[in-house]
Design a protein that fits this description.
It is a single chain. The chain is an alpha/beta fold. It folds into two domains: 6-84, 434 Repressor (Amino-terminal Domain) (Orthogonal Bundle); 87-281, Endonuclease, Chain A, CATH 3.30.870. 47% of the residues lie in helices and 14% in strands. It has twelve helices and eight strands. The strands form two sheets. A six-stranded mixed sheet has the order 5-4-3-6-7-8, with helices on both faces. A hairpin with a 2-residue loop joins strand 7 and strand 8 (241-245). Helix 4 (55-64) packs antiparallel against helix 5 (71-81) and helix 7 packs across helix 8. InterPro entries: Cro/C1-type_HTH, DUF5753, Lambda_DNA-bd_dom_sf. Residues 18-72 form the HTH cro/C1-type domain. Pfam families: DUF5753, HTH_31. This is Helix-turn-helix domain-containing protein.
């Protein structure tokens, strides 16, 4: 079986730039193919992310479009980073697509808003196993273990040399709701307290005393990327499928919900104090 490659956020930006350059020069994909001696469908497939763009082909395109440095060097750098063999390919049979993993891997900032469930990136292995079994009761043991392995693999993003900045707003009810094991719950609370010590992880809890707040309407994640040219993406996971939101008007509502949720939450020090209190209650 041929190994599939995942187009990164940087790769998508490169393809947008190449299409922009071609359009500005008034050329059709057939014009480009004719001048470069390519098959007439080759550029269509490249611009749609259906074929890998090798650096020799990128060089030919940039020469044809008359692109010079520093823009040329910038686009070559994108080309080197465009295609990735992601760890998630080993688990592709478990999930509908790769978009979530690619965005999580490429994001500079990840904002979790969790009124109902603890985000997978913050779960311990034992807690994840219990949650997966509960949420997908028809899974056999092997599939559960593979889902747990994938979730643990994801968490490597938090300990890499250039981790994303993570903000997690978690409802107090999520922390108080038992997974079914007191030992597992305690381990999970200790893990959250440990994560809260890292400078790139901003953990906030919305206490019951805050009452109803806007972010309580649903669980969602917002991904923001290093380059200003890459718009944020909001992600919502539901019982009937995943939703990705990129429209600016819709994103504004998620941004407002994020702001309102942070306003209702405890600050980091107060959050750590609450976690410590919950640990004492679980002794």
């Amino acid at each position: 079986m041929r190994t599939r490659l995942s187009l990164s956020v940087r790769g998508k930006r490169l393809l947008r730039e190449l299409k922009r350059l071609r359009t500005e020069r008034g050329m059709s994909p057939e014009d480009v193919a004719g001048q470069l001696g390519w098959h007439r469908t080759k550029l269509y497939r490249i611009e749609r992310g259906q074929s890998r763009l090798i650096l020799d082909d990128l060089d030919e395109l940039l020469e044809l479009y008359g692109v010079r440095s520093p823009e040329r060097e910038s686009l070559f750098k994108l080309g080197k980073e465009a295609w990735k063999r992601g760890w998630w390919l080993a688990y592709r049979d478990l999930y509908q697509g790769e978009s979530f993993f690619v965005m999580e891997n490429d994001a500079a900032r990840i904002s979790f808003h969790a009124p109902t469930l603890l985000p997978g990136l913050l779960q311990t292995e034992h807690y994840a196993r219990r949650i997966i079994r509960t949420m997908d009761p028809i899974c056999d043991d092997d599939e559960v273990e593979r889902q747990v392995s994938a979730r643990v693999e994801r968490q490597g993003v938090l300990s890499r040399a250039d981790p994303p900045i993570v903000t997690a707003v978690i409802d107090e009810g999520v922390l108080r709701r038992s997974s079914g094991s007191r030992v597992t719950d305690r381990e999970q609370l200790q893990h959250l307290l440990h994560l809260s010590q890292f400078p790139h992880i901003d953990l906030r809890v919305v206490p019951f005393s805050s009452g109803v707040y806007m972010g309580q309407a649903g669980q969602f994640t917002v991904f923001e990327f290093p380059d200003d040219g890459d718009s944020p993406v909001a992600y919502q996971e539901g019982l009937f499928g995943d939703v990705y939101v990129e429209d600016s008007d819709d994103l504004a509502r998620y941004t407002l919900a994020r702001t309102e949720s942070l306003g209702a939450a405890l600050n980091p020090q107060e959050t750590q104090a609450l976690l410590s209190d919950l640990l004492k209650e679980n002794e």
